[in-house]
Design brief:
The chain has about 150 residues and is α/β, with parallel strands linked by helices. The chain has a single domain, classed as Cupredoxins -  blue copper proteins (Immunoglobulin-like, Sandwich), CATH 2.60.40. Helix content is about 10%, strand content about 25%. Strands 1, 2, 3, 5 and 7 form a five-stranded mixed beta sheet that branches. A hairpin with a 4-residue loop joins strand 2 and strand 3. The structure holds copper (II) ion. Copper (II) ion (CU) binds next to loops.
């Protein structure tokens, strides 16, 4: 069972206990962990325990991607990116071919992180503007990045 690192404290236990599927955001504002603003990931770095599903949400009107830096994927970890590409070059080509892998306004992308280490990523169209981030997976992290 994946743990979810939603930015809230109430309700986190119920989710972890297995309330599968949709409808988790009723009345809650924090149904995602990282927002994609017009030009950056916010927060740029989140720290989570292994097994956490991190959710990104595009809170802007710009199309973004969440694309792993292939050279920084920890050993033994499959490449990951929005659009489910299997390499960074495929993700970058896909974007150029017609915005494949794009996450549009109000859309979400989620990925589950099992392996301890730093999982660095970027947004293909906005990398040069500094739209980069990292998911730090640590045994010491709490399930909710806003705790502590
Ligand atoms: Cu972007």
């Amino acid at each position: 069972m994946d743990r979810r690192a939603f930015l809230r404290s109430a309700g986190a236990v119920a989710v972890a206990a297995g309330v599968a599927g949709c409808g988790e955001s009723s009345g809650e504002t924090g149904d995602y962990d990282v927002s994609m603003t017009p030009r950056k990931f916010d927060p740029a770095t989140v720290e989570v325990p292994p097994g956490t599903t991190v959710v990104w949400k595009n809170t802007s009107t710009h199309a973004h991607t969440v694309t792993a830096y292939e050279e920084e994927v920890p050993e033994g970890v499959d490449y990951w990116a929005s659009g489910e590409f299997d390499s960074q070059s495929a993700a970058e080509d896909g974007w150029l071919d017609g915005n494949e892998g794009a996450i549009y306004q109000e859309e979400t992308y989620e990925h589950t992180f099992e392996t301890v280490g730093t999982h660095s990523y970027f947004c293909v169209p906005h990398e040069t503007g500094g739209m980069v981030g990292a998911v730090v997976v640590s045994e010491d992290a709490t399930a909710d990045p806003t705790d502590a």
